[in-house]
Amino acid sequence: AVQIAYGKKEARSFLFKLQESLSDGQRCYSPQLARELLKQLGTDLAEVEAAMTDSCLPDVIAQDQELAQ
What we know:
Elements: H1 2-6, H2 8-23, H3 31-40, H4 45-52, H5 57-68
């Protein structure tokens, strides 16, 4: 959803921050952690949440899965 709302560069930044936050084993993933990281990046949470209900989200996920394979 971050990718749809802000693009691949911002989505990559979010994933790197998420990985850093989880790598020390002190935190587990939670929606609250995701919101904190998005806030640190200066993203608009409402815009990301709106992208999560966007009709093109399944297509974007499928494209990313194809690319990963």
